[in-house]
Amino acid sequence: MNDTDLMSGSDARREEDVERVTTALGGVNREAEQKQEKTRRGAASTVLLVVLVAGQFMAVLDASIVNVAAPVMRSDLRASGAGLQWIIAGYTIAYAMLLITGSRLGAIFGYGRAYLGGLGLFTLASLACGLAGSTGALVAFRCLQGAGAALLVPQVLTLIQRRFEGRRRTAAMGLYQTAIAGGAVVGQILGGVLVSADLLGTGWRPVFLVNVPLGVLLLVVGWRALGGDGPDPGERPGWGRLDVPGVLVLAPAMLALVVPLVMGHEQGWPVWGWVLLAAGVAGMGLFAVVERAVAARGGSPLVPGAVLRSPGLLSGGIALLIAVASYNGFLFTLALHLQSGLGDSPLRAGLTYVPCAIGFAVSGLWWGRLPERMRAHVGYLGFALVSVSYIGMAASVHGGREGGVTLALGLAAMGLGQGAVIGPLMASALGRVRAEHAGDASGVLVTLMQVGAVLGVATYGTTFLSATGVGADASAHAAVVTFVTLAVVNLCAAVWACRVAVGRRAGRVG
Question: Which of 90, 299, 436, 502 could form a disulfide with 142 if both were Cys (CB 3.0 to 4.6 A apart)?
Fold first, then answer.
């Protein structure tokens, strides 16, 4: 072997060493790039979730923040009793009436675009409400706010279902339900703070104007995350895909159902309210007929039959309706007791709910970390805890007492129970829905929850108002009657949810 051969072998080994080092460095670089891409996607998902949950929070906040400002608005605008009712209820009525239509528009034009469109409309309407100079103008702009919320809210749940998977979806659902509960409580507190502060002599107007800077910020950030979101692949974009006959039947039917529930207890449940309720029920029957006809013609119904047949959707939706009805009915009746019966200020009454919000947030954010085998039991145990908490709170306010620590503990337990009910129920109801039906299923679920909220205020509010009288003792008696009623309803829900859970488990075992 000569020197040339030795040099050739040495060069070859060096080339092999260089190639190995280059390959190793390439693998390290690829791994680093993959980590960077994963980090970037994680950050983008976090930003998207914040935008979605913040929008949901605003929509819920606006339903409760106005209640605190009602007396000041009535004085400033010289509003009649009926006018004040419409200022408060116009938002809820438009919101409930258009939710399913808003969900369908998301499928047609893109869920992200629909969310941004709804957010933009909501923000502009909030500005208009804050600048309104008459009762009529404020009522009109409140209805416009409700329409914006109806376009915004269904997309939140749909985008969570479509953009998140596994544990990230569970965590997102926890934040979503925390926004629902927190918005109702924070609205009471923030409303009291803003009205009491009377910023620059603006009185009630900041309760609406507070939405504007947050809405603009969410639009700017949200456009980067959602601006390119298009319609479903199976959808032909354009207004021609909207089920116009379905909208023309569903909207009046929902209006006929919601208006008496919202206005009935203030009006003493007049005959026209019962007539409207009957018409609403008949309208929903007609809507079912129209939807079948649209599907038979090969059209795209607002609520496809396949969506309603999704396993667990309707049973989960009914359970959610019961849970949301009891929660909103309780918030309403306790506020009446604290402010009208005990004479608390709006701010103090709002701060009373803080333990409830904390309990709701804790269970809402932590139930997803439980082992899968335990989650099936969370729902009925949550209902049972809520039932017990109502009994405890009834005892705490009995005899006109303020409640003190016992009431605070009851509120915390109630929040824990409600959070343990709503999150798992939502996950269960939507868990077996096909991806192409996620938008429509979300619309159905959110509509049932909104109807539950209205129904709860109407039912339990009427229970309280029928039993109350003048003074703290009479108010406490009405609160005890209402809380015991709520306890019985939630106990029945716990028994039903337990039977459903055991039946499903038996079915899987079998």
Answer: 90
Segment of 327-341, 347-361, 406-420 carrying the highest mean pLDDT: 406-420
In this structure, the chain runs to a length of 510
> 94-125 burial by CB neighbour count: b if 16+ within 10 A, else e?
bbbbbbbbbbbbbbbbbbbbbbbbbbbbbbbb
Choice among 14-28, 107-121, 159-173, 454-468 with the minimum mean pLDDT: 14-28
Of 397, 408, 414, 407, residue with least CA distance to 475: 397
pLDDT score of 99: 85
End-to-end CA distance of the chain: 78
What is the CB neighbour count within 10 angstroms for residue 345? 14
Nearest Cα to 184, choosing from 69, 396, 354, 439? 354
Tokens of 433: 């829905």
pLDDT of residue 510: 33
Judged by DSSP in three states, 380 sits in helix
- Give the Cα separation of 104 and 158 in Å (integer): 11
pTM of the predicted protein model: 0.78
Closest CA to 482 of 316, 268, 265, 330: 330
Q: Residues near 147 by Cβ (< 8 Å), separated by ≥ 6?
A: 94, 95, 98, 121, 125
Q: Where are the beta strands (DSSP E) in 83-135?
A: none
Residues 6+ apart with CB under 8 A from 481: 463, 464, 467
Start-end of H helices in 239-312: 244-267, 271-296, 305-308
In this predicted structure, the answer to whether residue 125 has a pLDDT above a threshold of 60 is yes
Half-sphere exposure of 130 (CA within 13 A, CB side): 20
Helix (H) or strand (E) holding 391: helix 372-397
Cα–Cα nearest to 97, from 204, 319, 248: 248
Between helices 166-197 and 313-336, what is the axis angle to 10°? 20
How far is 163 from 445, CA to CA, in rounded Å?
18
pLDDT digits (tens, 9 = 90+) for 55-95: 999 988 888 788 777 777 877 888 776 677 788 778 888 88
The mean per-residue pLDDT over the stretch 28-43 comes to: 58
Is residue 177 over pLDDT 50?
yes
The alpha carbon of 490 is separated from its chain's Cα centroid by a whole number of angstroms, namely 20
d(CA 81, CA 333): 20
3-state secondary structure of 298: coil
pLDDT at 481: 92
Q: Which tokens in the block code for residue 150? A: 């109806």
Residues 6+ apart with CB under 8 A from 50: 221
In 176-213, which positions are buried (b, 16+ CB within 10 angstroms) versus exposed (e)?
bbbbbbbbbbbbbbbbbbbbeeeeeeebbbbbbbbbee
